[in-house]
Design a protein that fits this description.
The chain is α+β, with helices and mostly antiparallel strands. The protein has 17 helices and 14 strands. The strands form 3 sheets. Strands 1, 2, 3, 4, 5, 6, 7, 8 and 9 form a 9-stranded antiparallel β-sheet that branches. The longest helix has 22 residues.
């Protein structure tokens, strides 16, 4: 299946490479980054002067200025030096550090404690003649740019600074802003779309700051938000084909793919991501009607459920092999067995829908249904704790939101049971809570699915609204209101602050799912409809 298709799939993917839209964004203010114990990450930007004052500010060699662009941007910084101020016309050497949030570049020394490479934290040197302009050679993701004068014959002035913003999306977030509804939801929606737009580059990136990879779990959620907003079907199709073309030789789809030096699979394999290829393809088919792509990629979507057999015992129970990356959420102590069981059920169910749509043969559909029933029964007999009225996971019989949420999404519970489970979890302080917007998204999806719309709506406003209250202009990779310094990478400076999987509030808002829980006069569905037509 693979050998015959790999090159063709890659050609389709390459033919869909987007043309990026470039748009200038002016600097908004000059700020100073300072420590502040009351700020969520311990740093804040204090306004020093309006942008109009930039040109009159003299910066001594060794001195610096911090530019605030008012919101998160992906693009190239361009600075223009004022005309000759010193004899000799010597060039100035500047260095620039970029930060998505103040805490990233507030400290004057680059933080080396994080687990990732951290190249994006290093400063970029720029040489510029008096009266001339220079553009940063590489694309950066940032709100703040800390410009330091490394060498100059005397004080210099910046005559102008701007960013040439890049995105695969031609529409601006302002064009798409909802015109009706509660103010917090309008803002949550706009910030969701900015998060999505800034991640939509040559592919749907997981975050534009770090190594800009395409991850399958992120793609699924980005695509859902894209269908209710920018509706760029070509970019989703390109990404689906990239994953298919980069599958390992046994047909397993990797968790992520890299662009350079040429498109290739990452070594990361995450079963709960591979399993979501089929559901992502089904969502794409439903949004685009593109049956040719669905039929073309159906065999490889099906293949991911074959791979699942490696992890399932003869009763249909997912067993953690111990040496494979199970993701689900970035909670360190999370036992993922039950949530994997739920993801597998979810995928098997969606695969049956996809199979019926693409005209799969009866034997395949019967086998998918048999496996679904077996795994569903195993969830009830092996993972359900009747005394607690909740699922348990792993040898330690851990209780978590992740297990309940994914087994609800996988259809292992009736709506009544799922609702009762949410009540019990809320009263179980030891139940492990979600820490990333990825799992929070699924909490909300599961709540809506079992009829807890009011609760889902409140959860969304509270969680994503919390990031807004901490000045987010795009949503973050990791956010736990109780743990500001939480990072899977040992440093919050390595976290991404414009992250793919965080853009999904727009899905719920624009599908009108929150409408029943807000004042009828403020209904957002009509506004969303206007925005997308
Ligand atoms: C990280 C990124 C990415 C995610 C994986 C599991 O490296 O945050 O978005 O999909 O983990």
């Amino acid at each position: 299946m693979l050998d015959a298709n790999r090159d063709r799939w890659m050609m389709i993917a390459e033919s869909l490479a987007p043309k990026l839209t470039l748009s200038p964004v002016p600097v908004e203010a000059v700020v100073r980054l300072c420590e502040d114990a009351a700020a969520f990450h311990g740093w804040k930007a204090q306004s020093v002067a309006p942008a109009s004052a930039l040109g009159s500010q003299l910066i001594e060699p060794g001195g610096e200025v911090c530019l605030d662009f008012g919101r998160h941007i992906v693009g190239r910084l361009e600075v223009t030096l004022a005309g000759v101020t010193h004899p000799g016309h010597a060039e100035a050497v500047l260095s620039v550090r970029f930060g998505e949030v103040a805490a990233e570049i507030g400290p004057s020394v680059v933080d080396k404690t994080g687990k990732l490479g951290g190249e994006w934290l290093e400063s970029v040197p720029l040489r510029v003649q008096p009266g001339g302009a220079v553009m940063c050679p590489t694309r950066r993701a940032f709100r703040y740019a800390r410009v330091r004068v490394e060498e100059a014959p005397g004080p210099i002035r910046l005559a102008a600074a701007r960013v040439v913003e890049e995105s695969a999306v031609p529409a601006s977030v302002e064009d798409m802003r909802l015109c009706r509804g509660p103010a917090d939801l309008i803002e949550i929606d706009a910030v969701s779309l900015r998060t999505l737009r800034n991640c939509m580059q040559g592919v749907f990136e997981d975050g534009p700051k770090r190594d800009r990879r395409l991850w399958l779990g992120d793609l699924r959620l980005q695509a859902l938000a894209n269908y209710v907003s920018f509706r760029d079907m070509g970019l989703v199709k390109r990404c689906l084909y990239l994953f298919a073309a980069c599958a390992y030789d046994d047909g397993v789809i990797p968790a992520c793919v890299y662009e350079r030096p040429r498109w290739h699979a990452g070594t990361e394999f995450i079963p709960d991501y591979s399993l979501l290829f089929g559901p992502t393809l089904l969502d794409y088919l439903e949004a685009s009607g593109d049956m040719d792509t669905a039929r073309d990629l159906w065999p490889i979507a099906l293949r991911q459920t074959e791979v699942l057999r490696r992890f399932v015992d003869s009763d249909g129970l997912f067993v953690d092999p111990g040496d494979v990356w199970l993701y689900i959420d970035w909670h360190e102590g999370l036992d993922r067995q039950a949530a994997e069981q739920g993801t597998a059920l979810y995928a098997l169910e969606k695969l049956q829908c996809l199979g019926r749509r693409v005209g799969a043969d009866a034997a395949t559909l019967t086998e998918l249904s048999r496996r679904y029933e077996q795994m569903s029964a195993a969830a009830r007999t092996r993972l359900w704790d009747a005394k607690q009225g909740l699922f348990v996971s792993g040898k330690a019989r851990q209780v978590s939101w992740a297990s309940h949420v994914w087994l609800t999404l996988g259809g292992a519970l009736s709506d009544d049971e799922a609702r009762a489970g949410f009540d019990r979890l809320s009263n179980a302080p030891n139940a492990l809570r979600p820490v990333t917007p990825y799992l929070h998204h699924h909490v909300i999806e599961a709540m809506f699915a079992c009829g807890l719309g009011a609760r889902a709506s409140g959860w969304l406003r509270d969680y994503w609204g919390g990031m807004l209250r901490h000045d987010a202009t795009t949503f973050w990779e990791v956010y736990d209101p109780e743990q500001p310094m939480l990072s899977p990478y040992a440093s919050i400076r390595h976290n991404s602050y414009c992250h793919a999987w965080s853009c999904t509030p727009a899905c719920f808002i624009r599908r009108g799912l929150l409408d029943p829980y807000i004042d009828a006069a403020e209904s957002m569905t009509h506004a969303a409809h206007n925005a997308s037509t």
